[in-house]
Amino acid sequence: MTEVNKAPHLGDGPPPVGGWTRFVTARPRLSLLVALVLTALAVLAGSGVADRLGSGGWEDPAAESTYATKALEREFPDSQPNLLLLVDSGRASVDDPAVAARARDLTERLATEQGVTGVGSYWQSKSPALRAKDGHEALIAARITGDENAMGKTLDRIAPHYRGTHGPVQVKVGGIVAVRHEMQTIIKDDLTRAEMIALPITLVLLVMIFGSAIAALLPLGIGIVAILGTNAVLRGLTSFTDVSVFALNLTTALGLGLAIDYALFIVRRYREELSAGADPLTAVGTTLRTAGRTVLFSALTVAVSLAAMMVFPQYFLRSFAYAGIAVVLLAAAAALILLPAALLLLGHRVNSLDLRRLFRRTAKPSGAEGTAWARAATLVMRRAPLFALGTTALLVLLGLPFLGVKFGTADDRQLPSGAESHVVQQHIRDDFPGSPGGGLEILAEGGATQTQYADYKQRVAALPEVVRVDGPLVKGDTAYFTVQPKGEAVDSAAQRLVGDLRSLKAPFDTKVTGTAAVLVDSKHAIGERLPWAGAFIAIVTLLLVFLLTGSVLIPLQAVVLNALSLTAMFGAVVWVFQDGHLSGALGFTSTGSIETTLPVLMFCVAFGLSMDYGVFLLSRIKEEYDRTGDHNEAVRHGLQRTGGLITAAAVILAVVMVAIGTSRVTNTKMLGLGIALAVLMDAMVVRSLLVPAIMRLTGRATWWAPAPLRRFHQRFGLSEGEPAAPAKKKEKEPAGV
């Protein structure tokens, strides 16, 4: 599908891409039959994928905190509870004999359950940390063993027997394992609901765009193929690596969004060729040479942005790379192989079932939309400095709230306020002494005397941010201490305390873990690798856009303007989700921070989608510039031909992302709504206003490249158009510019 970007050839016919056209259209019925069989196999292979996905993955597996956590789980499993039963005695005291008897009975029963260890309770230890301050609630703590899937199955088996009323007490189930399991269940349910919302609305929008119901169904079919194929890929990946359940949301969003984008571009170009008098086979060939190359470039640029997440060690981020790359490549493959076969079989029937004829009297005349975009481009270029400065200032202003971002960790507050595990954790946070979940743990390895342990404990207790130190609990040459910090679990003071503990000298090896330690290590891992991820995205994007355009300036513009288009998204994330504005209307609990990995994820996804639209616009501008040599006319023509298409694609993708954003899990809500805002800002502000204004200001210099790079592009570069005439030497201004 590549074309050598040599000097225009006159009278030689179209470039030699007939081989690819023949390949994808030689046996159209067979191609579609094979696709149907493969899709059916993907349904079988991907069935049950959600049950095999994890709900964690925010920690760095090579970090000190991860090592310490695993060592403590191995050496002191009873000290690492992940299941909590909140026992509510109503108006009675938890020390009431009847309440205590029933609670001890529940504790003893829980200790006999298979897969459960380390069972303890307030009624056994009388620990003040396990008793609410008002004396009406207390905790039973235990540890469920195994990996995430095994823990989920154990919880499903035992929870119904403990949840609910037991004589004088009411029991609710909480703890980390319950939070993660409930999050996984809610995400699966929400994803089904999002699909039920997005699919019919998307179909209606496609009918409005194409008019033809037949043409509208084609993009939807490509999207479904991409989603089902990616589910099968993820199912296979779970056999040898961890994959986050959150990746399913990206699969649905990108599967529908990008497949529809690519199909929109191809079907629109095919219908243009038919309208110009081409027969179906010629129209398919021209479409593959033009829109097909654009789709290929778009898929590569989006895949590059998503692949950058492979740089990070957290499997939460890597999961999105797995899912994103798979769904992008499958969407592009379906659009470039299956869609041409379907178009060839349909021929002129692609325009059948024109539903817009019902509204023909009120419909815009043919070409009205393109004329409006041409007038808009002319206006923007006439006032290019004003639009360039004004738009840039607006985007920077919208991004200012991100300067106050605070990073934190995901916890139970990701769940709806009525979710059982959230209720339990909130009760513990509000009603129990200390800062449950905020304690730090120190793993001590190498052995020591009691005197050495006592001296170390005393020095830890003397640190200014420490409230209390418990321990040590010793097992052979290993011991551990628990440290209760002042303030919140992951505030700046707790994070400073992590550094103080790690720098404190001891006669044995120490490792610090706990919520704040995990956050510190996660921030370090992301900060250390972020420049590499950014450099990877920038360098590969610059190369791909250069291969498409042959310009040095356009790739630089693309990277800078794409990054600028994301400012509104990042500003809104902080203003809404961190600061809590609109939390009531959107139905989430603000934690006062943003989970550390979310901005990285949102940047990679949104940057890739912005490049998707950028490639659509630039390819059409380049096609016209190659044909006429007129820079300003090429910009105007490019916006005229793609402005409506890009806007329609962005609206459809935004609908899908907003459907994802209806999730009851805060991180998923943030992802969906944030990216919906980013793609709309990119399509309606950056592509419509900022790009034409900047390109008008840079003029013909936009297409400059030094001689060695020009020769490189002539040999290896790709072009969407089929140049019909040598580029003109004299610039021609569009009307009014």
UniProtKB/TrEMBL annotation:
PANTHER family documented for this protein: MEMBRANE PROTEIN MJ1562-RELATED, MEMBRANE PROTEIN SCO6666-RELATED
Major place of residence: membrane
Subcellular localization, as worded in the UniProt entry: Cell membrane
UniProt keywords, alphabetically: Cell membrane, Membrane, Transmembrane, Transmembrane helix
Organism field: Streptomyces diastatochromogenes
Name of the featured protein: Transporter
Family, as annotated: Belongs to the resistance-nodulation-cell division (RND) (TC 2.A.6) family. MmpL subfamily.
Pfam family, one: MMPL
Residues forming coiled coils: none
Membrane topology: Multi-pass membrane protein
SUPFAM superfamilies: Multidrug efflux transporter AcrB transmembrane domain
Domain of life: Bacteria
Membrane spanning residue stretches: 30-50, 197-226, 246-267, 295-316, 322-347, 384-403, 532-554, 559-578, 598-618, 645-665, 671-690
Residue span(s) of domain Membrane transport protein MMPL: 59-383, 476-711
Keyword Transmembrane helix appears in the UniProt entry: yes
Stored InterPro entries: MMPL_dom, Mycobact_MmpL
Single GO cellular component term: plasma membrane
